[in-house]
Amino acid sequence: MKQKGSRVELLIHKLKLEDAGDYTCDTGDRQSSAALKVKALPVLFKQELQNVEAEEDGTAALSCEVTKPDAPVTWRKGSVGLHSSDKYEMRQKGCHVELLIHNLTLEDAGGYRCDSGDRQSSASLKVKALPVLFKQELQNREAEEGDTVTLLCQLTKADVPVEWRQGSAVLEAGDKYEMKQKGPCVELLIRRLGVEDTGDYTCFTRDHQTSAFLRVNGRKERLYK
């Protein structure tokens, strides 16, 4: 408070939004009032979001720093607003803001945006696919001419495209061959077996392969056994 002669003055330092309101000067005989309006400073980004690369099934962290502590922000992936869940975890400590994305899938890749209301900061997330391995390899089989045989294996990831071959020949689905896939389990059914079906069979993924030998016993072989 300052007073010089008949002039009286109130100085309010380091204004906050909470300082807005009505102020009154009271002489005891008279009062004079006025309203103070505090205009909020824009919330800017002191440190922008940075592009991130993380592995499938892992956790990615997107972080930035705003100019005002505990300023409310919102997060988006593309045009879709994000909310706290098992998948998304929002953290904020002072001016530091962070989005954690858990259990990453390839679909989580893309552009993310943090919005302070006054400014936006964007970055992209790249998700690196884990290699598809064989949890259960193909096993050698023996069958009789005319029968149907099933070759099966199990992958470390569900619904991954595979290719089947006999030797170097790529097999196509039809009356002879049926390819089945349910989750990580992959099967090849071979119908009406002939001795010419004897040979090596291989299941290929983008990253690995597994092989097994199929022996088909002809009718004459069965007679002499």
UniProtKB/TrEMBL annotation:
Domain Ig-like per the UniProt entry, residue ranges: 42-126, 131-215
Domain of life: Eukaryota
Localization, UniProt: Cytoplasm
Main location: cytoplasm
Pfam families: I-set
InterPro entries the UniProt entry points to: Ig-like_dom (IPR007110), Ig-like_dom_sf (IPR036179), Ig-like_fold (IPR013783), Ig_I-set (IPR013098), Ig_sub (IPR003599), Ig_sub2 (IPR003598), Obscurin/Obscurin-like_Reg (IPR052385)
Gene Ontology, cellular component aspect: cytoplasm
UniProt KW keywords: Cytoplasm, Disulfide bond, Phosphoprotein
Transmembrane residue ranges: none
Keyword Disulfide bond applies: yes
Protein name, per record: Ig-like domain-containing protein
